[in-house]
Amino acid sequence: MGIFDSLDISASGLSAERLRMDVTSENLANAQTTRGANGRPYQRKEVVLQQAGGGSFGAALAGVMGSTSQTAPGGVEVAGIVQDATQGQLVYDPGHPDANAQGYVRMPNVEPVEEMTDLITESRTYEANVTAMSTAKSMYTKSLDILR
Amino acid sequence: MSLFDNTEFTLSAAIRGAGLRQTALSNNIANANTPGYQRQDVDFESALQSAMADGQNPDSLQFSVQTDASAPMQPDGNSVDVDTESAKLAENGLDYESLITVAKARLDILQSAMGGGA
C-alpha cells in the first residue's frame, strides 16, 4: 500500500462522477432533439461504472479460493457509455418537419426529472469524494508532524 | 531493554491500519454508484487486540481489506451508503491524527531523555 493510494482512489471517483455529470448534461441538452447523430431521435446515454482492479487475475483467484480478503482497493473506472434503447414517446405535432404521415413526432427518450435526480446523486457523490480526499490530505500532513 | 517498547510498535501498527482503512473507505465512496459493488473495510482494531492477547509482536502484523457482506444492499447490488462512509471516514481520520499525536509525544519524551532537546 502506498501512502498516496487513497488520493488516487478519490481522484478516480472524481473523474467518474464528472463524466457521469457530463453525460447527464448532454441528455438534458438533447431532451428535445429529434435529429441525433444518425438522423434518428436522440437516445439518452448512461455511464457504466465498474470497480477498478476487480477484473485482475489476483482478484479472480482470491474469489475462487473463497478468500474473503481482496486485492488492494483500486478505485473506480468507466466500463463504457451505453445508449438507452427504449423508445421515446410520440407527440402529436403535424407542423413539425420530422412528423410522420399521421402527424406524430418521435421524441427522445430523455425524462428531464430522471436526469435532474441523477444530477443530484452525481454532485453529492462528487462532494463525498472531495471530502475523502481532504481527509486523506490532512492525515498525511499530520503524519509529517512526527518528523518535526 | 530496547529503545522502542511494545507500545511504540502497537502505535505504529495502528497507524498503518488506519492508513489502510482510509484507502478502503475512499474506495467505497469512489464506488458509491458502481452496480454490484460490496463495501470494504479494515478491522485493524480487533486484529491488533488478538495479536496483543497472543503476545505477538504487533510490528509484524499484516492488515487486510475485507469485504463487508453484512451491509444492506440496494436494488443494484451496491452496499455503499455515502453518509455512513463519510462518517466512518471522518472518524478514521481523527483516530489517525490522535494516534500520530500520541506517537509524537512518546518520541518527544525519548528525545528529551536523550538530551536531544525537544
Write up what this structure looks like:
By secondary structure, chain A is an alpha+beta fold. Helices cover 45% and strands 14% of the residues of chain A. Chain A has helices spanning 5-29, 57-64, 112-144, and strands at 45-51, 76-83, 90-92, 104-106. In chain A, helix 1 (5-29) packs antiparallel against helix 3 (112-144). The model of chain A has no long low-confidence stretch (mean pLDDT 87). Chain B is mainly alpha-helical. Helices cover 57% and strands 3% of the residues of chain B. The interface between A and B is large, with 41 and 37 residues.
Assign an overall shape of chain B.
elongated
Q: What fraction of the residues of chain B are assigned to beta strands by DSSP?
A: under 5%
Describe the oligomeric state of these chains in a short phrase.
Answer: heterodimer
What amount of the residues of chain A lies in strands?
5-15%
Strand order of the largest sheet of chain A: 1-2
Q: What's the helix-strand series of chain B? A: HEHEH
Low-confidence stretches of chain A: none
Total beta strands of chain A? 4
Whole-number radius of gyration of chain A?
22 Å
Mean pLDDT of chain B: 89
Separation of the first and last Cα atoms of chain A: 24 Å
Sheet/helix structural class of chain A? alpha+beta
Helix coverage percent of chain A = 40-55%
- Tally of DSSP helical segments of chain B: 3
Which helices and strands, and how do they pair?
The complex is a heterodimer of chains A (148) and B (118).
Chain A: H1 5-29, E1 45-51, H2 57-64, E2 76-83, E3 90-92, E4 104-106, H3 112-144
Antiparallel strand pairs in A: 1-2, 3-4
Chain B: H1 6-30, E1 40-41, H2 44-53, E2 66-67, H3 82-113
Antiparallel strand pairs in B: 1-2
